[in-house]
Amino acid sequence: VAPSYAPSSTPPTHRVRFFARHLPDLGWEPEVLTVDGAHYEEPPDAEIDRLLPDVRVTRVGALPARWTRRLGIGDLGMRGYFHLKRELQRIVASRRPDVLLLPGPPWHTMLLGPAMREKAGIPYVLDYIDAWVNSMGADGRWWTKAHWFRRLAIALEPRPARGAAQIVAVSDG
């Protein structure tokens, strides 16, 4: 479940692309659930398609950034969360995946792991490209967006982290 995938060329896109390319060599049949590129805020990478593995890709909608930015929310995982959840429930009902890989950022989609484990018993793996809880917003300035994003991260991260079948990360740090 990767909100950001081609035509984006962000680091999460490449992590998912690499996993999807090499998992068949290990006996897995990957499928990518992502937000449609029309909802990305970064410019599309016209060349990335030639790097993509041949896997099933399902694309969903998201709340428009031009609406959510007025509320201070641009995060693609937050904007696409309910669309991704609805489609993931359909995929689970029809194809029952063996495991879910949830890369972050964006981190809020990691909350889909516990939801699917509780609903259907599907294990999930969290792939930390960056830390969800970090020092941004830790300076005590309660009126900043960074402060409240950090508080939200501190409140939300433990649930998916506790229930993960595995956690992988870019670095030990």
Task: Provide a descriptive summary of the structure in words.
By secondary structure, the protein is of the alpha/beta class. Helix content is 36%, strand content 14%. It has helices at residues 11-22, 65-68, 76-95, 112-120, 145-156, 158-163; strands at 31-35, 56-60, 100-104, 124-128, 166-169. The strands form two sheets. It has a three-stranded parallel beta sheet, sandwiched between helices. Strands 1-2 form a two-stranded parallel ribbon. Helix 4 links the parallel strand 3 and strand 4 (124-128).
Task: Name a few traits of the molecule.
173 residues; alpha/beta; three-stranded parallel beta sheet; two-stranded parallel ribbon; 6 helices; 14% strand; globular
Would you summarize the structure shown here?
The protein is an alpha/beta fold and 173 residues long. The protein is 36% helix and 14% strand.
Write the layout of secondary structure elements.
Blueprint: H1 11-22, E1 31-35, E2 56-60, H2 65-68, H3 76-95, E3 100-104, H4 112-120, E4 124-128, H5 145-156, H6 158-163, E5 166-169
Parallel strand pairs: 1-2, 3-4, 4-5
